[in-house]
Structures are given as C-alpha cells and as structure tokens.
Amino acid sequence: MKIGITCYPVYGGSGVVATELGKALAAKGHCIHFIAYSMPFRLGHIAENIRFHEVNVNAYPLFEYPPYTLNLTSKIVDTVKYEELDILHMHYAIPHATSALLARQILEKEGIRIPIVTTLHGTDITIVGQDPSFAPVVNYSINESDGVTAVSDWLRAETLKSDINADIEVIPNFIDTDRFRRLPREHFKQAICPNGEKLLVHVSNFRPVKRATEVVDVFHRLQQKGHGIKLLLVGDGPDRTSAEHRARDLGVYDDVRFLGKQEPVEEILSIADVFMMPSGSETFGLAALEAMACGVPVIASRIGGLPELVIDGETGFLCELGDLEGYTQAADRLLSDKDLHARMATASRIRAQNEFDISKIVPRYEAYYEQVMDKAALAIQ
Ligand code: GMT
Fold first, then answer.
1. pLDDT above 80: residue 11
2. CA of 283 relative to ligand 1 center, distance in Å
3. Is residue 306 domain-shared with residue 220, that is, in the same domain?
4. Which of 155, 214, 360, 377 allows an S-S link to 150, with CB 3.0 to 4.6 Å?
5. Cα 322 from Cα 301, distance rounded (Å)
6. Does residue 184 have a pLDDT over 90?
7. Taking a C-beta distance cutoff of 8 angstroms, is the pair 89, 20 a contact?
8. Ligand 1 proximity of 235 Cβ (cutoff 6 Å)
C-alpha cells in the first residue's frame, strides 16, 4: 500500500504514534509518505520506502496568520497525484482532517478518489475541538472522513457526545516492547541515587494539563514520610518553571533533577521505581505505557483513557484527580513493599507486551485501511 501520513512532527504523543506507525508499516513493505511542516522527530533516518514531503508555509506580508491548512492541502493534492497514494491517514483532526477533505474534493475533480482515515488523539476532541471557533469544521471533517479511529474507548465515547456521528474504530496506542524494556543501567542508577535511594520519575511536555507540580508535592510528602527517594523530571514546557519553584519552596530542590527533553527515554525509565502521571486530561497516556513496558508501576489520575491502560491494584494505582494524599499513599505502598512492587512491575511489563505491543496493533491499522479502501471503492461503483 502507498500511504500518506500527516501529523504534528515536532511535539506530542500524536506525532510519536504517527511516526512509529509509519516506520512499522514501512518495515512491513508499505510505502510511506510523511506530509508535514518538518521531518517528524522520531523518524531518525529516511529508509528506502519512507519519503518525506515538506509543507512550505507561505510568509507573504499580507498574511498575518499564514494559511497553513491551505499549504498542507496543496501538498497533499500533489503527493496523492504524483506518488499515486492509496490512502491518507491524518493524525489529529485539526487542521489535518480538514486539509485532507479539501484535497479529496480537489482530486475528485480530476477523477482521483483518495480515502481518508482520521485518528483522534485527544485535545482535538476534548479541548480544542470543542472551541466554538473550531467545532463546526472539526465535526464536519470527522463526519466526512472515510474512516475514523480513536486511541481509547473513552475518547470514542467522548467524541460521540458532540455532533459527531461517524463510526469510530478504537485502535489503542502501541509500543515496541523490544525497544522499551528494562535495561541494565546500574551505573546510571548509582549516579542519580548514590545512597541507594528509590527513584520517582515523571515524563511529560509540562503543559498545565500534566499537573507536574503535583509530582513535586507528592515527592515532598514521601520524603516527609521518611523515604530515601530522588525525583527525575523529564521533558520541558510551560510548567517547568512552576515545578522548579515548587521544589525550591518545599526545600527539596537538591533531590530533584530536571533533565529537560531526553531521548532515548527508555534509558531513564530503566532506573525508575515508580512513574507518576497525575494528568487532568489524558485520552491514552503514551508516556505511562512506555514506563509500563520498562517494568515501572504507574500511579495516575483516574481520568480519561488511563483506566484502560493502568489496572488499579494490578499494574499500579489510580487515584482521584488532585488527590495528593492518595498518590502519596499509593507510592508509599509501592516503595515499602518489595513483593508488591515486583508483582506490579512484572504485571506492567506483561500488560504492555500482551495488549499494546506494536506487533499486535499495526495489523489492526492495516486491516482497517483495507476495510476503508474497500468501502470507498464500493461507494463509487
Ligand atoms: O491532544 C493532545 O493533547 C495532543 C496529543 C499529543 O500529540 O500529544 O496527546 C494525546 O495523544 C497521545 C497519543 O495518542 C495520548 O497518549 C495522550 O494521552 C493525548 N493527550 C491528552 O489527551 C492530553
């Protein structure tokens, strides 16, 4: 199959999922054409059957706001036409699904029918998509796509609460559990925790929705309970400064390391004892899956798609949103009970392998593409 994939290339889990999917499909022999404003950061290198088509954004002085949606549309039209693509897969509805629809209409005039799959990832539905300045266009673009997928049951249900009536297939996010596994990194652990301390880890883009300062609060409470513990905060974003201030205010700054953006993250997860994701909204929680694959129990908020990933009491603990005492007690249990920790670490790894391994999820996308292409072909007969 020749598949065109569009995603946000430099930021966020939707771009990671799109890029890893494209790489995996290419490894299975499909020809993948990424269409984006820059090279997806997880792409690494361009392989024989992976191509990249850069969308050039027009900086004409009249345009206070460059019309990226139109530049993307034109690039999609050209790529479908000249590369003879079979299907388009748009990750994140805004504006990708809209550009694809417009491209489909333009191409129809030339006798080319290109089916579109739109994958909903999160705030394209939960926050941005509900903004009245977007909603009519987003709803239309999703309803008119030939196929729609969502990354969790929760996101599917949430989407159907609005004016969206598309059939939505749930295909969860995935991970390469060969790459994400616990690596022997004793020297690294020793450097971060020189006196045998335990290690709490949080990885995010530090947007307010990630509630990173709560991780610092919980860390402080754990120290007050007498745990010898260090905290690693990985990633960067708007709330990093508040998290730094919080650590200083609470007097724990010397035991907290802010690592900034780091790759490969599995090196860090390999030395973690507990992973925390106290997010205010999370449709799936890819970073939590990465931790689970590395055998790290996750403590998370009971919101969005997280209960579909983290099994409360089995692979970690779920607590009510903002329940600092609940998070602290959960971490306290894991850090105090070696057997419980070992059981949950093993269960996390097994769940990641059994339910979310790339080898299980990619064939579901392939089957879905076939289904959508068959339906689109029938429609024009
Ligand atoms: O919707 C967003 O906030 C952006 C998106 C992204 O690009 O990071 O995040 C969402 O998609 C990820 C990949 O499917 C999910 O793992 C994240 O849970 C989800 N983020 C939110 O729902 C806040």
1. no
2. 6
3. yes
4. 155
5. 8
6. yes
7. no
8. no
Residue 61, pLDDT above cutoff 90: no
Mutate to test the pocket of ligand 1, among 120, 123, 127, 277 (most ligand atoms within 8 A of CB): 123
Residue 381 has pLDDT above 90, yes or no: no
Could you tell me which residue, 65 or 369, shows the higher pLDDT?
Answer: 369
Residues 159 and 70 in one domain: yes
Cα–Cα distance measured from residue 328 to residue 312, given in angstroms and rounded to the nearest whole number: 15
Provide the domain limits for residue 260.
186-356
Give me ligand 1 centre to Cα 93, in Å.
Answer: 12
Between the CA of 197 and the centroid of ligand 1 the distance, in Å, is 32
Query: pTM of this prediction?
Result: 0.94
Strand 116-120 to 147-150 pairing: parallel
Higher pLDDT, 257 or 380: 257
> Which pLDDT does position 262 carry in this prediction?
83
316 lines ligand 1 (CB under 6 A): no
**Same domain assignment for residues 167 and 191:** no
